[in-house]
Amino acid sequence: MKKFASAWLLIMMLMAVTIPVATVQAAGTTYYVDSSGGNDSNSGTSTSSAWQTLTKVNGITFQPGDQILFKAGGSWAGTLSPLGSGDSTNQITIDMYGTGNKPLIAGGGVDASVSLNAQEYWTINNLEITNTAASRAARSGIRVLAKTTGITHGIHIANNNIHDVTGENRRSMPAYQSMYDNSGIHIRFDGDATPTDRFDDVLIEGNNIHDVLTSGIKVDSTGGTTADQLFTNVVVRNNIVSKTGSDGVIIGSTVNALIEHNSVYDAGYNGNAADTHLIAGMWEVISKDTVFQYNEVARTKLFDADGTGFDTDFGTGGTIYFQYNYSHGNEGGFWLDCAHITPNGYIKTVLRYNVSVDDMLYVARSDDRPADFYNNTFYKSSGSLDASQGADGSSYRFWNNIFNYQTSPNWQSSQYDNNLYYPEAANAADGNAVTGNPQFVNPGVVGDGMSFADNYKLQSTSAAIDKGKPTAGNGGVDFWGNTLYNLMPDIGAQEYGTDGTYDSNTTNKFSLDFSTTQGQKNWNYMQYNGSTYSNMSWNSSLGAWKGAGTWNRIWSPAILHPDTNDTVLAWKAPKAGQVRITGKPRKDGAGGDGVNVKMMQNSTQLWPASGWQFIGASDISGVAHDVTITVAANDMIYFVVNKNVNNSSDGTYWDPMIRYASTLANDFSSTQNSGYWNYMQLSGSTYSNMTWDATLNHWKGTYTYNLIWSPSQIHPDTNDSVVAWKAPVIGSVRITGNPKKGNSGGDGVNVKIMKNGTQIWPASGWQFIGGTDTVGVTHDITTTVAANDMIYFIVDKNGTNSNDETTWNPTVAYQ
Hints:
The protein is 2% helix and 41% strand. By secondary structure, it is mainly β.
């Protein structure tokens, strides 16, 4: 296991520190330091009277608002350790002036090239820092030690170039001399931090740390083993860490720390198996509620064990999030679980919307603490990633992930639901497995930079689109920032985006619409006593709708539990039309004696044909329904769950989706694009909108008989008359209809269907409908659409416009 050995459990010996007599300067002053043209006898307050040495700077006690500016291109040997503190409104700032290379602080084997001790409100910007020596020892580039009593505020370290630090990469060295006691940037509290003795407001941003024998960035305390060492407002972002001697980024002793937009490449590159033993790319320890997001971790070395991109380590509390990260080529795998060591209020780790490409060996290593993996993309160009190593993974839950493996892995004993498997065989433990090609944009391509994750976006015909199950509290966006969800959830790290959306009168998906208010988005939460449906009441303490029985409950995202009364989810039709009702009721977990389910429209049973559909006690796969019906406004659709014999373990996942079809006759309107229908004419290759004629109650085009009127009557003239449907979102649609003459007479009409500029029915040319053909022809075609695609239903007059009234009532339904 990892990480901090007994060093963290010892009591640090008190050490006498001799501080030289310092000069106190006026507050709010800018000082200049020039290694070649300065002089320590100068005032230091202008570029022409700059100081020269670190000795001079280190002997000054600076005041709030002061700036210490080192000349670009200059170099200084030794330690930069100025004195004094800023305050809450005025930081003391170290920075550069002039143009050229960053000023170089070359430590030359000191404990730290830049050092602050028991000081606060400091900003360290734009330095180049080295710390070379002939042999390894605990050395850092920048080290900040907290006050031992009170809160140390405002440590900001930005835009520094730190490299060639001959630090310590040996894990087995004595206390406070090992690889855990140095870093490129090291923020440390000596001893046990407390709510009153700690850091607050630590920002480490925009630094480049490379080619060091140490870790890259480390925030920690030397005491404690549980998540009560709560540094606050810690942010580590936009840093690049590469070719370290041990770990990449270690975050310890924090609460709600935010670690984002960092890149860690080749952690452990300068380590070795004999000394370094165990590392990870980016991890937290004795911390609570840490968030790691939008980071890239690549090629972390594997020595004795570990070697993963990410890690939840000992003393962890709360919930840890790894989200929107790109991981590739890490030798030990994707994530390490060491949370079992001295846990302190640990809830779980959530790993969501990450992209992993050609990581090696395992998705998870070492332990078996609660973890949720959902909507991640795991891609292997050869072989596979085993689910877990070191334990059976029974506390890990996987759903909505893409496993694009070339061979089948060891799935261990983890819990699986609704994952996509390709091209390897589906996991037998996944009762709702999805198979099919995810159709990544450019699979197999991998490289450094977050943009390489774009190769694992989905194409429009991906098997992952609209196949996911909804997840409450999902973070709101996918890896690329697309809003969740676009109608149905997708599987993997991308929610395939469009510009269109549905309104609640077109599509209702229970898990997406769940509310604490009756009737919200047309859903009602009810119970049935054998003769009467009645509303449940919202119980805020339970976080559930509750009926008369103890277990008459409904809760998010889509769980219904019956008791003596049946538990009922009800949908009230907001308008008349054709609806398709799909879903797959299943047990939420194994146990009990099973449940009975059925679906009613008012008092008429819809599904199954009669009686009940039984869902077995261990049936976590369930039984699908797909029913298309016509509803009147205010019709009630009831989804009923009955307890069977007893109410034990009867939680039932039922997430119905109800989609209105777009039907011209039902949706006809005097407003363009109402219900997604548009009323147009075609002249040559140009479509243009008709105008509503309130006197005729018709849509009217350029010519006398270019007309469209209710319910679905279309009359062409010199211009073709066109009804057009505009797709609100991406998807597969079924287009059915029966164009026919509305009256008998004339020389007939020609009809066809176009999708944008491509003809989709008939195969070519026109479909002729004779002058007396009041029966007509039928079409039933399925096509994919993107948001804002146009489907044109075109009627041409043939020879003349006499008696060319055509009845055409197309229906467009998403599948």
